[in-house]
Specification:
Blueprint: H1 3-9, H2 35-42, H3 57-70, E1 74-78, H4 81-90, E2 98-102, H5 107-119, E3 123-127, H6 133-139, E4 144-150, H7 162-171, E5 176-179, H8 184-187, E6 197-201, E7 215-219, H9 233-236, H10 247-269, H11 275-286, H12 288-307, E8 312-316, H13 326-332, E9 340-345, H14 348-357, E10 363-364, E11 374-376, H15 388-393, E12 400-404, H16 410-422
Parallel strand pairs: 2-3, 2-4, 4-5, 5-6, 10-11
Antiparallel strand pairs: 1-7, 6-7, 8-9, 9-12, 11-12
Helix pairs in contact: 1-3, 3-11, 14-16
This protein binds pyridoxal-5'-phosphate.
């Protein structure tokens, strides 16, 4: 199946007489005839469902679709993008370990890494998304377990040089984890460029309607954990909580990572997506390929308009010729990036606030990648926990407005922006 067909029909393949649409298995539990049958599931000796905190068929149908879209070997849904990013790192990094991450990442992920996971004993070194190979090499330590970045950073909109980050990660014997939320597998498939694990906040374009918070982790199955067995004992040595099974032996390179994350992290943290939300997510996925085209078209038109406006001091959109990331975008995102445009209003923070107050069609919302256009001032919302220096390192200036173009008519959006800019004196 080609990409567009996977969006519509991937993951769930009904058999004769079964529901055409993905069924919502709204059940916490699953019945078995014998305790032995159930015991095999608890020992990971057989695959099947017993309790929705760990796995649910609806979730697995939808995860399988995202897995196909990304070109991976295994995937799982999580309750949120935060849970996906947490699990993706915590599955291979323990207390005393270290991770290299791009500094230009989503504010929530930055807090998760720099504050909460630090409390858990995991150290992060943040590097520029533009780091050279030499700068990347310097960030590694003997206890480094992963490298993390975003294909298209939210909201800095820098484009990650996935190949460069993957080469550096692999040279140091660790996987590259890429958060592909903004690009979506429609516009970029990080595995094709060497990434090993992909994560998503499905809350954004994959759902696309602002209806359900969710996340997803996909494994490429390509990272050779066994080759670096001493770095990844959790995958390569027996798990005492499952009678001594070794994930890479029992589930192979293609299944070990996701099985471990499900069997240990989902079991213990329980960040499961509700089957109801997975169903809504799947409705969004059915039109992802159609919607992304329109989001990108609107993003391009809005970015071009803003770049010529006298009251706008700068625009960041990698589809603009002359944008710092234009060349990288041509390589990694040749069919378009996303609908999000970041820009600065002349006059700084105050002007940005006046501009936003005067928008009519575009709503102020802590959201992006929605069918309805929305915008946000990160310095006073998502990133307000950060110091000025951290803001600059994350590619966010105090005047930055993150404008997420929805699926409306571009002319209406441009008129709305134009009117709101007129209010800025
Ligand atoms: C929103 C977002 C997250 C967090 O996802 P939630 O679903 O809100 O938990 C992570 N990464 C990126 C790039 C995001 O945009």
């Amino acid at each position: 199946m080609k990409r567009d067909t996977i969006c519509v029909q991937g993951g769930y393949q009904p058999k004769n007489g079964e529901p055409r649409q993905v069924p919502i298995i709204q059940s916490t539990t699953f019945k078995y005839d014998t305790s032995e049958d159930m015991g095999k599931l608890f020992d990971l000796e057989a695959s099947g469902y017993f309790y929705t905190r760990l796995q649910n068929p609806t979730n697995d149908y939808v995860a399988a679709k995202i897995c196909q879209l990304e070109g991976g070997t295994a995937a799982m849904l999580t309750s949120s993008g935060q849970a996906a990013n947490f699990f993706s790192v915590f599955n291979i990094a323990n207390s005393g370990d270290h991770v290299v991450a791009s500094a230009e990442i989503y504010g929530g992920t930055y807090n998760l890494f720099a504050v909460t996971m630090k409390k858990m004993g995991i150290d992060f070194t943040f590097v520029s998304a533009d780091a050279t190979r030499e700068e990347l090499d310097k960030a590694f330590r003997p206890n480094t377990k992963a490298v993390f970045g975003e294909t298209l950073a939210n909201p800095a909109l820098s484009v990650l040089d996935i190949e460069r980050f993957a080469e550096a990660a692999h040279a140091h014997g660790v996987p590259l984890i890429v958060d592909n939320t903004f690009a979506t597998p429609v516009n970029c498939r990080p595995f094709e460029w060497g990434a090993d694990i992909v994560t998503h906040s499905t809350t954004k374009y994959l759902d696309g309607h602002g209806a359900a918070v969710g996340g997803c982790i996909v494994d490429s199955g390509k990272f050779d954990w066994k080759k670096y067995a001493d770095k990844f004992p959790g995958l390569c040595t027996p798990d005492d909580s499952y009678h001594g099974i070794t994930y890479v032996e029992k589930f192979g390179l293609e299944g070990a990572f996701i099985t471990k994350a499900t069997a240990q992290l989902m079991r213990d943290f329980g960040s499961i997506q509700s089957p109801q939300n997975a169903f809504l997510l799947n409705l969004g996925l059915e039109s992802l390929h159609v919607r992304m085209k329109k989001h990108c078209e609107n993003g391009q038109k809005v970015a071009e308009f803003l770049s010529k406006h006298p009251k706008v001091s700068w625009v960041r959109y990698c589809g603009l010729e002359g944008d710092k990331y234009y060349a990288l975008a041509q390589k990694y995102l040749p069919n378009g990036s996303c609908g999000v445009v970041s820009f600065g209003v002349k006059g700084g923070r105050k002007a940005a606030e006046t501009f936003m107050k005067n928008l009519k069609i575009s709503a102020i919302a802590t959201h992006v990648a929605d069918a309805r256009t929305c915008c946000l001032h990160p310095a006073s919302a998502t990133h307000r926990q950060m110091s000025d220096e951290e803001l600059v390192a994350a590619g966010i200036t105090p005047d930055l407005v993150r404008f997420s173009c929805g699926l409306e008519d571009a002319e209406d959006l441009i008129e709305d922006i134009d009117n709101a800019l007129k209010a800025v004196k």
